[in-house]
Amino acid sequence: MTMTTIKTAWTALADPVRAWWAGLGRLPRMGVYALLIFGALLLPNDQIGSFMSPYSDWQGLLFFPIGGYILLAIGLNVVVGQAGLLDLGYVAFFAVGAYSMAVLGKIYHWDFWEIIAVGIAVTALSGVILGAPTLRLRGDYLAIVTLGFGEIVRITAQNTAAIGGPNGMNGIPHPPNLTTWAFPSAQPFSALGLSGLTPFKYAELDSRPYYYLMVLAIVLAIIFSKRLANSRVGRAWAAIREDEDAAELMGVPTFKFKLAAFAIGASIGGLAGVLYSTQTVSIIPDDFPFILSATILAAVVLGGSGNIPGVMLGAFLIAWVPERIRFLAEYRVLIFGAVLVLMMILRPEGLLPSRMRKAEFAEGTGGMGSMGGEVSTSKKTVGAGE
Amino acid sequence: MLLEINDIHVHYGKIAALKGVSVEVDEGEIVTLIGANGAGKTTILKTISGLRPLSTGRILFDGRDISSMPGHKRVLAGIGQAPEGRGIFPGMTVTDNLLMGAYARKGDFSKDLQEAFDLFPRLAERKDQMGGTMSGGEQQMLAIGRALMAKPKVLLLDEPSMGLAPMLVQQIFSIIEEINRRGTTVLLVEQNANQALRLAHRAYVLETGSIVKSAPARELLDDPQVRAAYLGAGATD
């Protein structure tokens, strides 16, 4: 059948790549990373745009939703993919970051770079505040409560006059220009479509400088998240994801680490919010609906929860495909939905799952696989047994 | 007394799972808790290791009151557990599972790993295999080996024979005996009363949340009531 053919074809394609990557030394890997970053910097090119996005502004699209979704997905992946906590209210942190930028920038006239640091701290704190009472719950109970929190944040913004109520905030300042230096109109820059581009001048019309800022944020988030995954913290998260009770029995302070996952995931979401807010100039509470949480979660699951290249690919597809198929007009959402359903039939573990995640999936545990009906009374848990 | 459980009550919501249970485990002993499904055996172990909160009562370990100590700290205090259903981390290799057992400790664990592999040669053969792909018996060995990596003073074992073939049950029980011989105190919860009573020094019989009998294990093997209830009518040897 065609489905199995596609499946085997994908495996045949992905496995050698994985093996090649595993065999690569440190230095060649750095080279590959550098090439990827360089490639990302060249993406806002008109020629690429005319193919990738003939119906909408490609450079704007690259910043948000594509770049924004990727950053959000990396952040949500810390919570869902690494610690295995199903968070349906992740958009709350995106909103907190965006409103931090708006309030501190417009009302208090803080400098953008200060706001980034403070915004990250504020969202991390909001992660702790939302996490402390909710993380005593597990599985679907946690999911429902986080869903509630996402809505609470949006509705609070809607009803708080000081931050604009339902009209939101506008006139959010852009970052100050670092330099107005522009690429010269000479080779090789003109061939790459870079001539005249001012990469560090943050103006209204050109999305590219913001996109570069987003790329920087994504690169930093990847490094941070990757380093965490390979540390003691990452091992604790993996244990919690696979079997929370067993993790506690190994001496892992599970509650503390779950809270840390929430705070770190939140701060990455907050960073995305700050960047989004400074570029779009005006935000309203309805920019942060539940469906955005669901979309980012879909990106994580589609790409391969727990694996950074996977979730990035997932986020890219979720952000890009609906724009690319705009010619289908009102059918595009239908087609997009069908593609998602199809993907989950063909590859329920995601497009690029990690090896670990695959094994967990087979066992029916690990993050969202383990949505057992478990509630805990105090900080201890009710097991299924006696 | 190494471990002393003093009149503990544990509730699941409004339902009382343990109604005043007292158990004592002395250093170097193998003590077993036997009883039917739902009697509260697993709850006792979970309460000792800190996965379940107490309603009333006290747990003393090594002379200290640990009743309100969080679970992960009890590991450092010296309580190790191979949980019900084994609790293997399916996405980690055998070696990584074992190393998770030493998570609370610091230092070099190569010697402890070697010890675990000596005790369970089967694990050494499969050290790079994912935990989730192992058979039930191998997972049980891994769960016990992993608990030992924390260098516990007392090892809590929750139904190590569950779902295993009789041959494997024999093997697991002789390993438990060996672990005890090397100096670790063992508290064993079992439905397989016959095997457990042969292995243990002392035993408690649990019925719907209360201890109904406690005696040296050998005596219980010959106790007509126990024989009728837990050893089956045909258990003659």
- Helix and strand pattern of chain A: HHHHHHHHHHHHHHH
Strand percentage of chain B lies at: 25-35%
Number of strands of chain B: 10
Principal-axis shape of chain B equals globular
Class by alpha and beta content of chain B:
alpha/beta
| End-to-end C-alpha gap of chain A | 46 Å
What is the residue-mean pLDDT of chain B, rounded to a whole number? 92
Q: Spatial order of the strands in the main sheet of chain B?
A: 6-7-8-3-9-10
Report the structural category of chain A: mainly alpha
- Name the CATH class of chain B: Alpha Beta
Percent of residues of chain A in beta strands?
under 5%
**What radius of gyration of chain B results from the CA coordinates?**
17 Å
Given as residue ranges, the uncertain stretches of chain A (5+ residues, pLDDT < 50) are 367-386
Assembly of the depicted chains: heterodimer
How would you characterize the overall build of this protein?
The complex is a heterodimer of chains A (386) and B (237). Chain A is an all-alpha fold. Chain A has a domain at 55-179 and 203-285. Chain A contains 15 helices and no strands. Chain A is globular and about 60 Å long. In chain B, the strands form two sheets. Chain B has a six-stranded mixed beta sheet, with helices on both faces. The two termini of chain B are 33 Å apart. Chain A binds chain B through residues 232, 235-236, 238-239, 242-243, 245-254, 355-360, 362-363, 365-366, 377-383, 385-386, and chain B through 12-13, 17, 37-43, 46, 49-53, 70-73, 75-76, 80-81, 83-84, 87-92, 96, 100-101, 103-105, 130-133, 146-147, 150.
